Amino acid sequence: MGILGTGIQEGLLLKPIRYKWAMDLYDQAVANTWFPNEIQLGEDIADFKKMTDEERHAVTFLMSYFNPNELLVNKALAFGVYPYLNAAEAHMYLAKQMWEEANHSMSFEYVLETFPIDREAAYAAHVDIPSMAKKEEFQVKFIRRMTEETLDITSVEGKQDFVRNLVAYNVILEGIWFYSGFMVALSFRQRNLLRNFGSLMDWVVRDESLHLKFGINLILTVLEENPELQTAEFADEIRQMILDAVEMEEEYNNDLLPGGILGLNASYINQYVKYLADRRLEELGFEAHYKVSNPAKWMATANDTLELVNFFESTNTSYETNAKAHSTAKAE
């Protein structure tokens, strides 16, 4: 029996674990549990007020995008992924991921409540700004196929739709588009601004790095267990989805930073987007397409926040809950 299946009574026994990678990610996700109010975000208000209009626009723009899309990811997981898996360890990880997406949404609400941001304008942006709305429609198209039409997971077309949805959400939304935004959000701390906001984003990035690992592992598992999906035509379609996503992100970044801010402009972000896209292509077994260097090498530390300690901040972003139990589980 493979990882795909819709039987209610399948996947009710956790042991023996069939997919160790899913259980390992669940253990790490539980160890990473955190809550937004542990960050003293109010200490950043003075920074926010002294920033330029364009800098404040960038932060607001990011919140406008992240907030609804964290909830959209939850819908994709609940309707497009969870019902079509039959491994208990995968369901457990997805349950924790869904809680994390909700926690991220509450974190971005915390930002909107703390900083002097027009909430109504921020909420409206994901509909009113064409480049943002275009990205969202791209995502909704895939989840609509999973929810409004009957998906036969036993058919080749049904399995392809399942993989398409994973690529749209785990690889493109979480692995490219979100990371592009994370880089912009964390760039302020590089200039000694919004340090507590940076700590909040560190924790979000740490979660999202596991979401990405789960999605990539799941895609590769489905492809391995279903060799009939491994056609040149389907591979080309998946590759093109990622390339199209890069173009959409370039438009979005031109709206995010129309004039640029100190040390950062749209072309810089777009080079980072292309670098990310190449890494995701390689993780899926493709060759790199853009072959550009990473303009934000400082993001490497943010992408491995388990090792990161902010010595100049009151909050240690590297802590883990139940770390002893987790280290024991890792050693088994």
From TrEMBL:
Species, as recorded:
Homoserinimonas aerilata
Q: Where does Fe cation 2 bind?
A: 174, 208, 211
State the free-text cofactor note: Binds 2 iron ions per subunit.
Cofactors (names): Fe cation
In its keyword annotation, does this UniProt entry include Zinc? no
Gene Ontology terms describing biological process: deoxyribonucleotide biosynthetic process
Give the reaction(s) catalysed. a 2'-deoxyribonucleoside 5'-diphosphate + [thioredoxin]-disulfide + H2O = a ribonucleoside 5'-diphosphate + [thioredoxin]-dithiol
Going by the record, the broad EC class of this enzyme is: oxidoreductase
Q: What does this protein do?
A: Provides the precursors necessary for DNA synthesis. Catalyzes the biosynthesis of deoxyribonucleotides from the corresponding ribonucleotides.
Q: How does it assemble?
A: Tetramer of two alpha and two beta subunits.
Q: What is this protein called?
A: Ribonucleoside-diphosphate reductase subunit beta
UniProt KW Iron keyword: yes
